[in-house]
Specification:
The protein is an alpha/beta fold. The chain is built from 10 helices and 10 strands.
């Protein structure tokens, strides 16, 4: 039952991840990043999603330390970047991320993109750091079904989660169904399509009906599709708005209307060409 920002999704390894987290992509100003993360934690967020590529792991670590919440009650995710893929390079990159975050372990570590001829070796490195207890869960990001099938054919462990571009213009139903069949959680990056749908009349009509914003309607649509979300914002009012999703429910009709906005349109890169 989704009640608040601490409501969690249970991954196939039994670990729990909050349904709603704060994404920190493109948060480049260190002070602003620290402040945004601390604000989110104070407001009730427990999950923070960063990556070595974002170059703000130090700020995330600092905010976590300065917050009033114990490390064990936070869920911290980072990712290995494309140029660091391969077995040895990944082990080194992970060590670097831990050092920057100034943490003893991570809750989740992901392969950022499926780099051809590299991601299987990278995955073996993730399996190792998981076996060593340095990360509690391991997963992937931007993997299509064929990448997942390829990985699963040759791995000891299954990813707990696949973080992908997902929003009403790119509903990824086939991929979501496949992940569900494999017991792999789906997490949406860019859950509100970088704000490109906020003037969509139908979303605003649904929003008005519920006394909410179009962004909140989209985020609630994800949650009711059992998708984990990491909306990003540095603005206090937006961080709060994005977390205020638990006092309304979309009807089946609302959900169907939103599903119909799909155009298989990506605003980010295509994993096959990246």
């Amino acid at each position: 039952m989704l009640k608040n920002l601490q409501s969690t999704f249970t991954l196939h390894n039994g670990k729990e991840i909050p349904y709603v987290g704060l994404g920190v992509y493109k948060m480049e100003n260190p002070e602003e990043t620290v402040q945004s993360v601390k604000t989110a934690i104070e407001y009730g967020y427990r999950s923070i999603d960063t990556a070595s590529f974002y170059q703000n792991e130090e700020s995330v670590g600092k905010a976590a330390k300065e917050s009033s919440i114990a490390r064990k009650d936070l869920f911290i995710t980072s990712k290995v970047w494309n140029t660091d893929q391969g077995y040895d390079a990944t082990l080194k990159a992970f060590e670097e991320s831990l050092k920057k975050l100034d943490m003893e372990y991570l809750d989740l570590y992901l392969i950022h993109w499926p780099v051809k001829d590299k991601y299987k070796e990278t995955w073996k490195a993730l399996e190792r750091i998981h076996d060593e207890g340095l990360v509690k869960s391991i997963g992937v990001s931007n993997f299509k079904q064929h990448h997942l099938e390829d990985l699963l054919s040759d791995s000891n462990e299954k990813p707990v989660l696949n973080q992908v571009e997902l929003h009403p213009r790119l509903t990824q139903e086939g991929l979501r169904d496949y992940c569900t069949s494999q017991n792999i959680a789906v997490e949406a990056w860019s859950p509100i399509a970088r704000g490109k749908l906020l003037n969509e009349p139908m979303l605003n009509h649904i929003a008005a009906k519920h006394g909410k914003t179009a962004a909140q309607v989209i985020l609630r649509w994800h949650l009711q599709n059992n998708v984990i979300i990491i909306p990003k914002s540095v603005h206090v009012n937006r961080i709060k708005e994005n977390g205020n999703l638990f006092d309304f429910e979309l009807s089946l009709e609302d959900m169907n209307h939103i599903n119909q906005l799909n155009m298989n349109e990506r605003f980010g890169a295509n994993p096959d060409d990246f």
